[in-house]
Amino acid sequence: MLRILLADDEPLVLIGLQGMLEWEKLGYTVCGTARNGRIAQELIEREQPDIVIADVKMPVMDGLDLARACHEKGPLPVFIMLTSSEDFSYARRAIEAGVVDYLVKMELTPQSLCDALARAAEQVQKEKALHDTPPRMPSRTEMEAGLRTLQDRFLIRLYAGLIPDQEHLQKEKKGLELPLEGCLAAACCEILPAKAGMTSEQLLKLNLACCQMLETTLHNYLSVHATGTDVLHFNVLFALPEEPAGGLKALLEPLLKKASQIVYNYFSARLLWAVGRPVQDPLSLSRRCRELDTIRVLLSEAEPILFAVDLESDATASKLQTVAQVKAYIREHLSEKLTLADVAAVFNFSPGYLSQLFGRYGGGFVEYITEVRVAAAKEMLEKGDKKIYEIAEELGFESSFYFSKVFKKSTGLSPREYQQK
User: Fold this and answer.
1) What is the dihedral of CA 290, 294, 296, 301, to 10 degrees?
2) What are the backbone dihedrals phi and psi of residue 179, each rounded to the nearest 5 degrees, phi first?
3) Which candidate, 91, 71, 73, 89, places its Cα nearest to that of 81?
4) What is the pTM of this model?
5) CB contact at 8 A, 177 and 185
6) Which of these, 159, 137, 141, lies nearest to 149 by C-alpha position?
7) Where is the Response regulatory domain (predicted)?
């Protein structure tokens, strides 16, 4: 896979270039970005890209001087130049600097960029064949990515209880640079995307972006390491030198709310958090993660953060399990008439007790049924293979009019408006 470096003093241009192509599918990987020629020169020496896409006009060192300086040392990297004008003098200087292509930004399209990259890639292959380039040592970025992969694999094994004892723990964590001393806490996080129907690739990108944004936001306050477990979930390890005097919840809750809001502002995705009790021994994290399974089913947009420390008693755990069972029953019987009295009878409860139980631990009985039905309706509307009255009937609404009323109250759009949007 050929390595690409992007250099432009305009942040929006850098973002646009990164989003213009599906780089990995085309056989390229973007190994870095730079805002001026001097930074680009340093990155070129460190990352050893095969192709550089650079703006002609940049502060400190312009793109043509950068290309000339690089080609004095050797034929690689190959340069593609971007410019805001069609001035022939730039084109002539670009040719003199050994640039293989010269593109005008206003005329740039995915196709023209692909064509330029293909020509540059051909030149790279010729130069490598001509000079019989020896195997390249991994760059710093590649080393960091490799370390991150090993860290994530280790933590997934730790969370799953696959590290048997202290001897194996000390052996496996050696060289991984993970903070596993002091006060440790694990949290499970679920991502609620802004829209349903996203592809696996889109969900994976969202997961990675959420993890990166979370770590960037919280690293000034405590050590944080987010590890994806599937495309819609990730675990987070929080580490502190010692447990805060006011307790871990007092520290973490406002930070998680802040991080969740930032993620929502950038990606329109909401985060649901189940946070475990703190431990001193890293091997205890697997037990804490198992405890979180009961809490996770209680999370909702109305109650997006729950701490195990608030739900420690046996009586509370039993009630949580009961609510989880009732919720599972509701999800499996959405097409039926789900009154409080009917569902209470299934579990041999009085309606009053079930209402009180759901109000304390489930976010409200009617509210939960509405939330689940609306979520299911969104998926059906996006598939587009059923009429609105069919969806209303399948989800247990008494009429399509009532369904539309509930749906609009929940989403701000009528079912038809949502489907068209």
Assistant:
1) -160
2) -80, 100
3) 91
4) 0.51
5) no
6) 141
7) 3-120
pLDDT digit string, tens, across residues 38-76: 999 999 998 899 999 998 888 888 888 898 888 888 888
Q: Which two tokens stand for residue 118?
A: 């293909």
Tell me the per-residue pLDDT of 246-296, one tens digit each, with 9 for 90 and over: 888 899 999 999 999 999 888 888 999 999 889 999 998 988 888 887 777
Q: Could you give the CA distance from residue 330 to residue 365 in angstroms, rounded to a whole number?
A: 10
Task: Tell me how far apart the alpha carbons of residues 295 and 303 are, in angstroms, rounded to a whole number.
Answer: 11
